[in-house]
Amino acid sequence: MKIGFIGLGNMATAIIGGLLREGTTLSSEDDNATVITAANIIGSAKTEATRQKRAEQFGIAVTASNREVAEAADVLVLAVKPQFFPEVIAKIREVVNENTLVISIAAGLTLERIAGLFDRDVTAMRLIRCMPNTPALVNAGCTAVAPGPGATAADETLCLQLMGSFGRAIVIPERLMDAASAAAGSSPAFVFMFIEALADGAVAAGMPRAQAYEFAAAAVAGSAQLVLETGRHPGDLKDMVCSPGGTTIEGVKALEEGAFRASVMNAIVACVEKAKAL
């Protein structure tokens, strides 16, 4: 099995790193299993510096030719920005055949739109749309996976194995992709802002900044892990921390007075509306 990446930026790097770090096994259409090594991966990038960096980092084959990657790949990951899709696909569509599984990680581009760029009907193309997020860079990603109508059950399984190599992978209907993109893809930026604000508050209270960042980041990471591992409602866990008349409920009151929840909700809705407009 050959996995091709067109584009070798941060997200492609996260995926490749996950595949190679874990010695991921991918299942093919004929039920054969392949343990992925560097020999199974080929990638293309515009600049020589990027190609050299990824070759040295992972030991994978690299090239300047997107067409070469598309010709070689059994699984083709399109990891370029959405605005470059028309240009890239125009030069590779002739060599992407009906047996190639195509995976897009571009925001805002629908399955139907991508298939159209290949001059194909979406029902006749093995196509899956994915949205990973930046925590994938530290093997803690959360990826939304929306299989197209032409993708097989085996394609879906393979994609989940691939995207699951660096975190969680969750299948959703495509109509929820913009919401997932906001909730998982954009939200790390909001969480980073929250961590920074937590640390700023601690600094205002006299804590050294480096220590404040460590406390804030560890508290956020641990809180998220508690939600995922216990399955308890976040509100229930919040109530568990808030003692009657205590310090925490006083802080919760201050956040509510500052429209904390509404601000976060509005940020997610704004991201969704922007994604729909792309």
From TrEMBL:
One GO term (biological process): L-proline biosynthetic process
Entry annotated with the keyword Nucleus: no
Main location group: cytoplasm
Enzyme class of the recorded protein, top EC level: oxidoreductase
A Pfam family per the record: F420_oxidored
Domain Pyrroline-5-carboxylate reductase dimerisation as annotated: residue spans: 174-277
GO cellular component: cytoplasm
GO MF entries: pyrroline-5-carboxylate reductase activity
Entry binding sites for NADPH: 66
Keyword set, alphabetical order: Amino-acid biosynthesis, Cytoplasm, NADP, Oxidoreductase, Proline biosynthesis
Pathway: Amino-acid biosynthesis; L-proline biosynthesis; L-proline from L-glutamate 5-semialdehyde: step 1/1
Subcellular location: Cytoplasm
PANTHER family given in the database record: PYRROLINE-5-CARBOXYLATE REDUCTASE, PYRROLINE-5-CARBOXYLATE REDUCTASE 3
Assigned protein family: Belongs to the pyrroline-5-carboxylate reductase family.
Purpose: Catalyzes the reduction of 1-pyrroline-5-carboxylate (PCA) to L-proline.
Entry protein name: Pyrroline-5-carboxylate reductase
